[in-house]
Specification:
Elements: E1 7-12, H1 19-28, E2 37-42, E3 47-50, E4 56-59, H2 64-68, E5 71-74, H3 87-99, E6 102-105, H4 109-115, E7 123-124, H5 131-137, E8 142-143, E9 149-151, E10 155-158, H6 161-176, H7 178-187, H8 215-222, H9 231-238, H10 242-253, H11 257-275, H12 280-286, H13 292-303, H14 307-313
Parallel strand pairs: 1-2, 1-5, 5-6, 6-10, 7-8
Antiparallel strand pairs: 3-4, 9-10
Helix pairs in contact: 1-6, 6-7, 9-10, 12-13
Length: 318
């Protein structure tokens, strides 16, 4: 289990806030016995905040919540390209970041973070409809509209509302580990987030409209990771040719089938390190990584750490 620590989460509701954007972090990090998070929903001032899509929010906290929080979420809001948030909001976000809080924007909440200057020279994303507007309004921001989210360490941004869930699960994985994030995904009836690239910090490409075509095959793979899985085996399960499978799989996930399979195996190894006492050799066998040496090599290349150090991170304080 992860070390015992309470994470404080503030969800900052701006005028015109989008309901789904507000609800996602509030629900993912809701206070419960299995989740060491405390959530406060706040606004520029306590009281009624006029939202978007016909909804309003009666928030209990003002900007003082940003001085309390370890993580500040900025949900998307209507017409972000027309004017910046109130100066007091911008200054409170800057102060929270300077104090060490992580700032995470969902969808058009990226405009509020851009107004702080904290995205200057950094990669960021937002809802595809507003990506060009963000780049034009804030030219120092390196806008990437082809990803679901971007993690720049202390400042994170996500694309449209649904990708806010990917971002939340990504943050949860970093705080509590793969097992806790997968448990939360099951509770939310959401697909577990599969990390990729260098550790979990390089996100997936945005899926095409046919994005779930191979969902059943991916699910099947997760239950057969210890078996010798080749491109031909995966394509046969999906009932398409290997060439078609490879092309469509990249369009759907942003990775080749073998890249995705490797990361799935590493993710499973991470979960076993977090939640079991199995040795490295046994974990390597159960995840299809072969040997302990092979598992160590992939951990170092993908996560920049060793299996023993990773396990120690998520078992200290037990």
């Amino acid at each position: 289990m992860p070390p015992t620590r309470l994470y404080r989460v503030a969800v900052l509701v701006l005028e015109g806030a989008k309901p789904l954007d507000v609800g996602i972090p509030a629900q993912v990090f809701t206070t419960r016995a299995s989740m060491p998070y405390e959530v406060r929903v706040c606004g520029a001032t306590p009281g009624l905040v006029a939202g978007g899509d016909g909804l309003s929010y009666n928030v209990d906290h003002g900007l003082d919540a940003l001085g309390w929080a370890d993580i500040v979420f900025v949900p998307g809001y209507r017409f972000p390209d027309r004017e910046d948030p109130p100066r007091a909001v911008v200054e409170a976000l800057i102060a929270a970041h300077a104090r060490g809080a992580r700032l995470a924007a969902i969808s058009t909440g990226a405009f509020a973070l851009a107004a702080t200057g904290l995205l200057d020279g950094r990669r960021a994303t937002t809802h595809w409809h507003y990506a060009r507007a963000l780049a034009e309004k804030w030219p120092l921001v390196q806008v990437d509209e082809n990803v679901l989210f971007v993690d720049e360490g202390s400042v994170l941004t996500s694309a449209g509302a649904a990708s806010g869930l990917d971002l939340c699960l990504h943050i949860l994985r970093g705080d509590l580990g793969v097992g806790a994030a997968n448990h939360a995904a099951r509770r939310l009836v959401a697909a577990p987030y599969r990390s990729g690239g260098q550790a979990q910090y390089v996100p997936r490409s945005v899926p095409e409209p046919h994005g779930e075509r191979f969902a059943a095959t991916r699910e099947w793979v997760l239950h057969h990771l210890d078996e010798p899985l080749t491109l031909d085996v995966l394509a046969r399960h999906a009932a398409v040719s290997p060439r078609t499978f490879s092309r469509r799989f990249v369009e759907e996930t942003g990775y080749t089938p073998m890249q995705w399979l490797l990361r799935a195996r590493v993710d499973r190894a991470r979960e076993l390190l977090e939640r079991s006492e199995l040795g490295v050799e046994q974990i390597a066998a159960e995840t299809g990584l072969g040997t302990g040496a092979n598992l160590r090599m992939h951990f170092q290349r993908i996560l920049g750490t060793t299996p023993s150090d990773y396990r120690r991170t998520f078992t200290q304080g037990d």
